[in-house]
Amino acid sequence: MKQAYQYLMNLLKDQDVIIVGVSGGPDSMALLYLLKEIRKKIHIFLVCSHVNHNVRKESAKEKEFLEDWCLKNDILFESMIIEKYEDDNFHNEARSIRYHYFESLVQKYHANYLMTAHHGDDLMETILMRLVRGSTLKGYGGFYQVVDKVHYKIIRPLIYATKKEIEEFDKNQKIPYVIDQSNQKNKYTRNRYRKVVLPFLKEEDPRVHEKFLKFSKLISEYDGYIDNQVKKVFSKVCQNHTLNIPSYLQLEKLLQDKILYHLLETIYHDDLILVNDRHISLIQKLILSNKKNTYIYLPNHIKVVKSYDRLQFLLDEENIHDYYMELIDYAVLPNGKHLEVVDSCDTNGNDICRLDSSEIFLPLYVRTRKYGDKMTLKGINGHKKVKDILIDGKIPMKDRELWPIVVDSRDTIVWIPGLKKSKFNKQKNERCDIIIKYY
Hints:
This protein is an alpha+beta fold. The chain has 14 helices and 22 strands. The chain has a 6-stranded mixed sheet with strand order 3-2-1-4-6-5, sandwiched between helices. Strands 7-8-11-10-9 form a 5-stranded antiparallel sheet. It has a 5-stranded antiparallel sheet with strand order 12-16-19-20-21, with no helix packed on it.
């Protein structure tokens, strides 16, 4: 924590205005306390910003605790509550709402800095998760200590400290905080890294977080260099979210990928975390496809359309009525779900389909339902209307039109993901050479 303290002392000057994102947990309370102590030496103005995510019954009491602490310590307190969520990805939507709120406070108070309590362990977890999941070059660097915005900077002063060091600081300084019990649940991916992977790495090297910080900074430097190269050619190959395919293909592969990421960043902004290297691979396959007119979907209703020598990125949220896509190894669906061909799977629910390619006609396609669609179900004679299957599954009317239907090249329905399996589905102990997962 000494390094964080010295960093802040060197950074801050009189009359600086700082928005501090505070949950009330041990990390953010340590940061707020640290800034409170620095305020005794430098005349800075602090605003504690709290977001009630409204998913736990303890949230209201945590807000009261934090507001009371700020009142006692002469710190301005601002808060908001998230009334409802629209996105299936709770963590991503909550993060987006949180940072939009922080930015509104930056504008309200004309702040110089927005500070958050992300620490060294957080950085390790983020880098490891993105390495496993797949990400952009910039994404593999995790998050950065300093992010330059137009009128302010995002600063993460605790990036030098470990979780253990922060907890010891809280204990020594008698800093009160609240505990979010959901951080102990193994159902969250980050928690599994925190409880299993990080302890192993720290046994190898107690200061391993410093190696990850060095890696993050190195990635940032390389990413910055490549960005400068991309800026020199971007306008020559892309305008108005439309890519000139012949010009694009003349570039080096590294620049090609980086141009796609840069283009996606202008579309997704804070939601870029939804995009990974598989999506880039899908776009590359679309570009190289022999088909003159075809398309794919990306997260958040982005439709990528190839039309001869042009590739357009369009927001298609209002106009998605039907789709028909070839299923090769991975597909993003307009309903926000994914279909992926996997090597193996232990489960056997309706979100998994096992097929024997000798019994169907390849390639497979995924489409919306058509009038009169019927499917032969597993274990019964005769057909059943897809319409009735959707009704029996209690699928809301608004979701039925986009529900995926997997068919073979003769338009025979082989699976309704998440709902019903056809007669072509195989059990785990039966022969199959195609396994598809829906999630």
